[in-house]
Specification:
Radius of gyration: 19 Å
Number of helices: 10
CATH architecture: 3-Layer(aba) Sandwich
Structural class: alpha/beta
Number of domains: 1
CATH class: Alpha Beta
CATH topology: UDP-N-acetylmuramoyl-L-alanine:D-glutamate ligase
Shape: globular
Length: 322
Protein backbone atom coordinates (compact mmCIF):
# COMPACT_ATOMS: atom_id res chain seq x y z
CA UNK A 1 0.00 0.00 0.00
CA UNK A 2 1.25 3.45 -0.90
CA UNK A 3 1.66 5.71 2.13
CA UNK A 4 -0.21 9.05 1.96
CA UNK A 5 2.87 11.04 3.05
CA UNK A 6 4.93 9.45 0.27
CA UNK A 7 2.28 10.34 -2.30
CA UNK A 8 2.26 13.92 -1.00
CA UNK A 9 6.04 14.18 -1.31
CA UNK A 10 5.99 12.97 -4.91
CA UNK A 11 3.02 15.19 -5.76
CA UNK A 12 4.93 18.20 -4.44
CA UNK A 13 7.75 17.37 -6.83
CA UNK A 14 5.57 17.12 -9.94
CA UNK A 15 3.65 20.35 -9.31
CA UNK A 16 4.28 22.77 -12.16
CA UNK A 17 6.21 20.29 -14.30
CA UNK A 18 5.64 20.87 -18.00
CA UNK A 19 4.13 17.99 -20.03
CA UNK A 20 3.32 17.83 -23.73
CA UNK A 21 0.27 15.75 -24.69
CA UNK A 22 0.15 14.61 -28.32
CA UNK A 23 -2.60 12.52 -29.87
CA UNK A 24 -6.21 12.12 -30.93
CA UNK A 25 -8.25 15.00 -29.54
CA UNK A 26 -11.98 14.43 -29.03
CA UNK A 27 -15.02 16.37 -27.89
CA UNK A 28 -17.54 14.53 -25.71
CA UNK A 29 -21.13 15.74 -25.98
CA UNK A 30 -23.90 14.61 -23.62
CA UNK A 31 -27.55 15.12 -24.56
CA UNK A 32 -29.50 14.49 -21.37
CA UNK A 33 -33.25 14.25 -21.23
CA UNK A 34 -36.36 12.23 -20.52
CA UNK A 35 -37.83 9.42 -22.62
CA UNK A 36 -41.45 10.52 -22.94
CA UNK A 37 -42.88 8.05 -25.44
CA UNK A 38 -42.12 5.69 -28.30
CA UNK A 39 -41.75 7.33 -31.70
CA UNK A 40 -44.52 6.67 -34.24
CA UNK A 41 -41.79 6.58 -36.91
CA UNK A 42 -39.84 3.64 -35.48
CA UNK A 43 -39.73 1.55 -32.27
CA UNK A 44 -37.35 3.97 -30.54
CA UNK A 45 -37.81 6.33 -27.58
CA UNK A 46 -38.41 10.03 -28.15
CA UNK A 47 -36.03 11.95 -25.86
CA UNK A 48 -37.02 15.41 -24.68
CA UNK A 49 -33.68 17.19 -24.34
CA UNK A 50 -33.24 18.98 -21.01
CA UNK A 51 -29.58 19.95 -21.30
CA UNK A 52 -26.40 19.51 -23.32
CA UNK A 53 -22.98 19.33 -21.75
CA UNK A 54 -19.49 19.10 -23.24
CA UNK A 55 -16.20 17.64 -22.09
CA UNK A 56 -12.73 16.76 -23.31
CA UNK A 57 -12.10 13.22 -24.53
CA UNK A 58 -9.20 11.16 -25.83
CA UNK A 59 -5.86 12.96 -25.61
CA UNK A 60 -7.70 16.06 -24.39
CA UNK A 61 -8.88 14.10 -21.33
CA UNK A 62 -5.28 13.08 -20.62
CA UNK A 63 -4.39 16.78 -20.69
CA UNK A 64 -7.16 17.72 -18.24
CA UNK A 65 -6.07 14.95 -15.86
CA UNK A 66 -2.53 16.32 -15.84
CA UNK A 67 -3.78 19.84 -15.15
CA UNK A 68 -6.04 18.60 -12.35
CA UNK A 69 -3.02 16.90 -10.74
CA UNK A 70 -0.97 20.10 -10.88
CA UNK A 71 1.10 19.92 -14.07
CA UNK A 72 1.48 22.58 -16.74
CA UNK A 73 0.26 21.16 -20.03
CA UNK A 74 0.84 21.85 -23.70
CA UNK A 75 -1.53 20.12 -26.14
CA UNK A 76 -0.59 19.08 -29.66
CA UNK A 77 -2.99 17.52 -32.14
CA UNK A 78 -5.44 18.19 -34.97
CA UNK A 79 -9.05 19.39 -34.99
CA UNK A 80 -11.37 20.27 -37.84
CA UNK A 81 -12.44 23.74 -38.90
CA UNK A 82 -15.81 23.32 -37.19
CA UNK A 83 -17.78 24.21 -34.07
CA UNK A 84 -16.65 21.06 -32.26
CA UNK A 85 -13.00 21.96 -32.76
CA UNK A 86 -13.62 25.49 -31.51
CA UNK A 87 -15.51 24.15 -28.47
CA UNK A 88 -12.73 21.69 -27.63
CA UNK A 89 -10.04 24.36 -27.88
CA UNK A 90 -12.15 26.58 -25.64
CA UNK A 91 -12.51 23.85 -22.99
CA UNK A 92 -8.77 23.15 -23.00
CA UNK A 93 -7.79 26.81 -22.92
CA UNK A 94 -10.20 27.66 -20.10
CA UNK A 95 -8.80 24.69 -18.15
CA UNK A 96 -5.31 26.18 -18.36
CA UNK A 97 -3.79 24.22 -21.23
CA UNK A 98 -1.48 25.80 -23.77
CA UNK A 99 -3.19 25.06 -27.11
CA UNK A 100 -0.59 26.56 -29.46
CA UNK A 101 0.19 23.04 -30.72
CA UNK A 102 -3.35 22.32 -31.93
CA UNK A 103 -3.50 22.49 -35.72
CA UNK A 104 -6.68 22.98 -37.77
CA UNK A 105 -7.31 20.68 -40.73
CA UNK A 106 -10.26 21.87 -42.86
CA UNK A 107 -10.33 18.50 -44.62
CA UNK A 108 -11.36 16.40 -41.62
CA UNK A 109 -13.93 16.76 -38.83
CA UNK A 110 -13.14 17.13 -35.17
CA UNK A 111 -13.76 13.77 -33.50
CA UNK A 112 -17.11 14.13 -31.72
CA UNK A 113 -18.77 11.51 -29.53
CA UNK A 114 -22.39 12.33 -28.72
CA UNK A 115 -23.98 10.31 -25.94
CA UNK A 116 -27.76 10.39 -25.54
CA UNK A 117 -28.86 9.78 -21.96
CA UNK A 118 -32.44 9.32 -20.72
CA UNK A 119 -33.34 8.75 -17.06
CA UNK A 120 -29.58 8.31 -16.31
CA UNK A 121 -29.37 5.47 -18.89
CA UNK A 122 -27.27 5.91 -22.02
CA UNK A 123 -29.50 4.88 -24.92
CA UNK A 124 -27.24 5.66 -27.89
CA UNK A 125 -23.89 7.08 -28.96
CA UNK A 126 -23.23 8.83 -32.25
CA UNK A 127 -19.63 9.26 -33.43
CA UNK A 128 -18.41 11.77 -35.99
CA UNK A 129 -14.80 11.12 -36.94
CA UNK A 130 -12.23 10.38 -39.61
CA UNK A 131 -9.85 7.46 -39.17
CA UNK A 132 -7.81 8.36 -42.24
CA UNK A 133 -4.16 9.24 -41.79
CA UNK A 134 -3.24 12.91 -41.86
CA UNK A 135 -2.19 14.21 -45.25
CA UNK A 136 1.53 14.65 -45.83
CA UNK A 137 1.78 18.38 -45.16
CA UNK A 138 -0.34 18.20 -41.99
CA UNK A 139 1.70 15.27 -40.65
CA UNK A 140 4.94 17.15 -41.37
CA UNK A 141 3.62 20.25 -39.58
CA UNK A 142 2.43 18.24 -36.56
CA UNK A 143 5.76 16.41 -36.34
CA UNK A 144 7.71 19.65 -36.37
CA UNK A 145 5.48 21.44 -33.87
CA UNK A 146 5.37 18.52 -31.42
CA UNK A 147 9.12 18.00 -31.52
CA UNK A 148 9.84 21.68 -30.84
CA UNK A 149 7.27 21.93 -28.04
CA UNK A 150 8.56 18.68 -26.53
CA UNK A 151 12.06 20.09 -26.16
CA UNK A 152 10.71 22.48 -23.52
CA UNK A 153 8.89 19.79 -21.51
CA UNK A 154 9.82 17.32 -18.77
CA UNK A 155 7.70 14.62 -20.43
CA UNK A 156 5.79 13.84 -23.62
CA UNK A 157 2.65 11.69 -23.50
CA UNK A 158 1.22 10.25 -26.71
CA UNK A 159 -2.46 9.36 -26.33
CA UNK A 160 -3.35 7.16 -29.31
CA UNK A 161 -6.94 6.32 -30.20
CA UNK A 162 -6.23 5.19 -33.79
CA UNK A 163 -8.01 8.15 -35.37
CA UNK A 164 -5.21 8.91 -37.82
CA UNK A 165 -3.00 11.34 -35.90
CA UNK A 166 -0.44 8.91 -34.49
CA UNK A 167 1.87 7.98 -37.35
CA UNK A 168 5.28 6.41 -37.68
CA UNK A 169 6.66 9.75 -38.86
CA UNK A 170 5.24 11.65 -35.87
CA UNK A 171 6.64 9.14 -33.38
CA UNK A 172 10.00 9.08 -35.14
CA UNK A 173 10.25 12.83 -34.58
CA UNK A 174 9.34 12.51 -30.91
CA UNK A 175 11.90 9.73 -30.40
CA UNK A 176 14.58 12.31 -31.22
CA UNK A 177 13.81 13.76 -27.77
CA UNK A 178 14.65 10.52 -25.97
CA UNK A 179 17.25 11.03 -23.28
CA UNK A 180 16.31 14.65 -22.67
CA UNK A 181 12.54 14.21 -22.26
CA UNK A 182 10.57 11.29 -20.79
CA UNK A 183 8.48 9.56 -23.47
CA UNK A 184 5.32 7.71 -22.42
CA UNK A 185 2.30 6.55 -24.38
CA UNK A 186 -0.99 4.70 -24.45
CA UNK A 187 -0.90 2.98 -27.86
CA UNK A 188 -3.63 1.15 -29.74
CA UNK A 189 -2.78 -2.34 -31.10
CA UNK A 190 -2.74 -1.31 -34.78
CA UNK A 191 -0.01 1.26 -34.08
CA UNK A 192 1.88 -0.35 -31.24
CA UNK A 193 5.06 -1.22 -33.14
CA UNK A 194 5.49 2.46 -34.05
CA UNK A 195 6.13 3.07 -30.33
CA UNK A 196 9.29 0.96 -30.18
CA UNK A 197 11.98 2.77 -28.23
CA UNK A 198 9.65 4.86 -26.07
CA UNK A 199 10.40 4.86 -22.34
CA UNK A 200 7.10 3.57 -20.90
CA UNK A 201 3.85 2.26 -22.40
CA UNK A 202 0.45 1.54 -20.85
CA UNK A 203 -2.23 -0.73 -22.36
CA UNK A 204 -5.30 -2.48 -21.04
CA UNK A 205 -5.68 -6.25 -21.07
CA UNK A 206 -7.63 -6.50 -24.35
CA UNK A 207 -5.24 -4.11 -26.13
CA UNK A 208 -2.23 -6.12 -25.00
CA UNK A 209 -3.75 -9.41 -26.16
CA UNK A 210 -4.71 -7.89 -29.52
CA UNK A 211 -1.15 -6.60 -29.98
CA UNK A 212 0.45 -10.06 -29.93
CA UNK A 213 -0.72 -12.67 -32.43
CA UNK A 214 -1.41 -15.97 -30.71
CA UNK A 215 -0.93 -14.68 -27.17
CA UNK A 216 -2.71 -16.99 -24.72
CA UNK A 217 -2.43 -14.69 -21.69
CA UNK A 218 -1.67 -11.10 -20.84
CA UNK A 219 1.50 -12.36 -19.07
CA UNK A 220 2.78 -13.70 -22.37
CA UNK A 221 1.73 -10.55 -24.23
CA UNK A 222 3.43 -8.29 -21.68
CA UNK A 223 6.69 -10.23 -21.79
CA UNK A 224 6.80 -10.25 -25.58
CA UNK A 225 5.89 -6.60 -26.00
CA UNK A 226 8.31 -5.28 -23.37
CA UNK A 227 11.13 -7.18 -25.05
CA UNK A 228 10.25 -6.53 -28.69
CA UNK A 229 9.52 -2.82 -28.24
CA UNK A 230 12.68 -2.23 -26.16
CA UNK A 231 10.90 -0.04 -23.61
CA UNK A 232 12.04 0.57 -20.05
CA UNK A 233 8.66 -0.49 -18.76
CA UNK A 234 5.25 -1.66 -19.94
CA UNK A 235 2.03 -1.67 -17.90
CA UNK A 236 -1.01 -3.79 -18.61
CA UNK A 237 -4.00 -2.50 -16.66
CA UNK A 238 -6.40 -5.21 -15.49
CA UNK A 239 -9.43 -3.32 -14.21
CA UNK A 240 -10.48 -4.69 -10.84
CA UNK A 241 -7.43 -6.96 -10.82
CA UNK A 242 -4.98 -4.04 -10.72
CA UNK A 243 -2.09 -3.91 -13.17
CA UNK A 244 0.92 -5.95 -14.24
CA UNK A 245 4.37 -4.46 -14.90
CA UNK A 246 6.90 -5.79 -17.40
CA UNK A 247 10.44 -4.92 -18.44
CA UNK A 248 12.99 -6.63 -20.67
CA UNK A 249 10.78 -9.63 -21.34
CA UNK A 250 10.09 -10.32 -17.66
CA UNK A 251 7.24 -9.55 -15.29
CA UNK A 252 8.34 -7.17 -12.53
CA UNK A 253 5.23 -7.06 -10.38
CA UNK A 254 1.46 -7.29 -10.24
CA UNK A 255 -0.20 -4.57 -8.19
CA UNK A 256 -3.72 -4.94 -6.75
CA UNK A 257 -6.41 -2.37 -7.44
CA UNK A 258 -7.85 -0.26 -4.65
CA UNK A 259 -11.28 -1.60 -3.77
CA UNK A 260 -13.76 1.17 -4.52
CA UNK A 261 -17.33 1.47 -5.75
CA UNK A 262 -17.04 1.61 -9.54
CA UNK A 263 -19.51 3.88 -11.32
CA UNK A 264 -17.84 4.45 -14.69
CA UNK A 265 -14.51 3.25 -16.12
CA UNK A 266 -14.61 5.67 -19.09
CA UNK A 267 -11.37 7.61 -19.30
CA UNK A 268 -9.66 5.69 -16.50
CA UNK A 269 -6.83 4.69 -18.85
CA UNK A 270 -6.11 8.36 -19.58
CA UNK A 271 -5.95 9.08 -15.85
CA UNK A 272 -3.66 6.11 -15.22
CA UNK A 273 -1.22 7.20 -17.93
CA UNK A 274 -1.22 10.83 -16.75
CA UNK A 275 -0.50 9.86 -13.13
CA UNK A 276 2.10 7.24 -14.12
CA UNK A 277 3.97 9.89 -16.12
CA UNK A 278 3.87 12.45 -13.33
CA UNK A 279 5.12 9.87 -10.84
CA UNK A 280 8.09 9.12 -13.11
CA UNK A 281 8.77 12.84 -13.57
CA UNK A 282 8.76 13.24 -9.78
CA UNK A 283 11.50 10.61 -9.45
CA UNK A 284 9.47 7.49 -8.62
CA UNK A 285 10.78 4.17 -9.82
CA UNK A 286 8.52 2.25 -12.21
CA UNK A 287 6.71 0.23 -9.54
CA UNK A 288 6.00 3.23 -7.31
CA UNK A 289 4.83 5.31 -10.28
CA UNK A 290 2.37 2.52 -11.12
CA UNK A 291 1.13 2.58 -7.51
CA UNK A 292 0.47 6.31 -7.86
CA UNK A 293 -1.38 5.69 -11.12
CA UNK A 294 -3.47 2.93 -9.53
CA UNK A 295 -4.70 5.35 -6.85
CA UNK A 296 -5.55 8.00 -9.45
CA UNK A 297 -7.50 5.51 -11.57
CA UNK A 298 -9.41 4.29 -8.50
CA UNK A 299 -10.39 7.89 -7.74
CA UNK A 300 -11.90 8.52 -11.20
CA UNK A 301 -13.87 5.29 -11.59
CA UNK A 302 -15.91 6.41 -8.58
CA UNK A 303 -17.29 9.25 -10.73
CA UNK A 304 -19.86 9.12 -13.53
CA UNK A 305 -18.58 9.99 -17.01
CA UNK A 306 -15.11 10.87 -18.22
CA UNK A 307 -13.55 12.52 -15.18
CA UNK A 308 -10.38 13.81 -13.57
CA UNK A 309 -9.01 13.63 -10.06
CA UNK A 310 -6.86 15.73 -7.75
CA UNK A 311 -4.03 14.99 -5.34
CA UNK A 312 -6.35 15.80 -2.42
CA UNK A 313 -8.88 13.21 -3.64
CA UNK A 314 -6.13 10.63 -4.02
CA UNK A 315 -4.86 11.32 -0.50
CA UNK A 316 -8.39 11.05 0.91
CA UNK A 317 -8.88 7.73 -0.85
CA UNK A 318 -5.57 6.37 0.42
CA UNK A 319 -6.23 7.44 4.01
CA UNK A 320 -9.61 5.73 3.88
CA UNK A 321 -8.03 2.50 2.63
CA UNK A 322 -5.51 2.22 5.46
Amino acid sequence: MLEPQQLQQWANKWQGKRVLVVGDLMLDEYIVGVAERISPEAPVPVILCERRTYGAGGAANTALNLISLGAKVVVCGVVGDDWAGEKLRQILSESGADITGILIDPNRPTTLKTRIVAQTQQVARVDVESRASLNGSMETSLRGVSRELGRECHAVIVSDYAKGVTSQGLLSGLRELKGQTLLTAGPKPKNIHHFAGFDYLSLNRSEAMASVNGAVSFFEAGKQLSLQLEVQGLVITLGGDGCALFSGGEQLAQLPALRVQVYDVAGAGDTFLAALTLGLVAGCDFVDAAKVATVAAAAVVRKVGVATTTVDEMLHLLKGAI
